[in-house]
Amino acid sequence: MVATVMNGCVRVLRWALVTVAAAGSFPFAAVADGTPPGPSADGVFLACGAKRPDRALSSAEKARLAELTASLADKGTSRDDLGRRVKAARALGLEIGHAAAIAALERAVQDTKDDYSVRAEALAALSVIPHKSVIPMLIRALADSETRVRDRANEQLERLSGQHLWAPFRPDGAPAAPAVGVARWEQWWQASADAFTFDRWPEAALTLGVKSADRQLSATEAAWLSELNASLLDRGADHGKDPRRRAEAARGLGEIGHKDAIPALRQVMEDTTDDYAVRCEALTALSRIADKSVVPILIRALGDDQLQRRASWQLIWLSGTTLGLTFGPETSREEEIAILTDKWTQWWEENQDTFVFDLRRML
After folding, report:
1. What is the percentage of the chain residues whose pLDDT exceeds 70?
2. Of 106, 170, 240, 307, which is most buried with the most CB atoms under 10 A?
């Protein structure tokens, strides 16, 4: 099986009975010598064009790693410092992608006194480093005191494993017991660690596994979709619990994965007066619906101050490329948003006709 790489290069990697296709530079960048990699030292199957997490770092990479690690650790005092540290966390995962970056990212995740946005970005960065030590870290984050950190950790575990073992919220909107999530994921990891690979499904399975967004819904699915749509749009009066209930409704619509869920999810996501957590969940749910109309919605969300980073991550996951974009501390937030929107719009104009939803990137 041959995969077309985003930048035009075509390679094939076959190992055992598993064939893996990778696109562009994400989630891992190109091997320096260009040779197709086999399994790494810890048994992880690396995708064609993958960057080894245990490779020998060049002098330039070591210097960049040290720079980013120091930037992430330096909390500073201003809002600009917060943005700088979020960028550093992201670059440690996407740009460096090495086991040597894991310790700094884990420290950021575990610092409960730190800002949520830094901790969440560090979690996401950990999840793109193909090293098995990352999985137990994500599982431990399920016990975090911050609900949004637990939710992000669970989201990344689901994406990496293809499993749905626990939801951070109960159907009534109340937070679920973290101990239950930790226990279920630990049990899965104990049973799966030896055989686990970061990218292991054949392309045929990935294609077949994607739910058709315009399929004929069963009576049960149609009733569920209608109920969840109504629940999502109903803000209610009890603001203590309703945001959680509505966030869970958005998540359910993403699991159904039908185009009829798009209008309600889009309405909530684009309503800047709505609850932040509900808007984030609506954006994530949209990214799990295999309908091409979703991609321009995500691109427009790059201009939303609250949703920009999450929209950026979802576009990276769905597309399989970072577009080679990195931003230093000298880049203002306004400039970053303008560049991201322009580059992703250009990418979509060039690729929308051939774009295919890939289950590996939608979980």
Report:
1. 75
2. 307
